[in-house]
Design goal:
CATH topology: Zincin-like
CATH class: Alpha Beta
Bound molecules: zinc ion
Shape: globular
CATH superfamily: Metalloproteases ("zincins"), catalytic domain
Number of strands: 3
Order of helices and strands: HEEEHHH
Oligomer: single chain
Number of domains: 1
Strand content: 5-15%
């Protein structure tokens, strides 16, 4: 579906579809989050606890699917690598080639941490 005023694709995704996408990536990446939640978070796109709970902002439901995928892979990867070091970046490249372009295209995302 397109927004006629901006020409941008609107993502009419439900929370359930988004959660299914997270579960699909968790299987691909062989990580097992203790809990996956999609809830109202305004200061971050997503977060993960040291105990393996991952939490995603409902605002992501309105983002493009490449950006959603980026946030999902980024956050699930923290279950394997807790920082943003070299290993983190090389695994991002392995799972989601082109993630840097996705991030560059979605300017403004730097205002929220991941
Ligand atoms: Zn991060």
């Amino acid at each position: 579906m397109m927004d006629t005023s901006t020409g941008k694709a609107i993502n009419l995704q439900t929370k359930e579809q988004f959660k299914a996408e997270i579960a699909r990536w968790a299987a691909v990446m062989k990580v097992k989050p203790v809990q996956i939640r999609v809830q109202r978070i305004t200061k971050k796109w997503a977060s993960c606890s040291s105990k393996g709970r991952v939490c995603f902002s409902t605002d992501l439901l309105q983002e493009s699917s490449p950006f959603q995928e980026y946030v999902i892979v980024h956050e699930l990867l923290h279950l394997q690598v807790p920082n943003h070091g070299k290993l983190f970046k090389s695994l991002m490249n392995a799972y989601l080639p082109g993630w840097e372009a996705i991030l560059a295209e979605r300017n403004g995302s730097a205002a929220r941490s991941l």
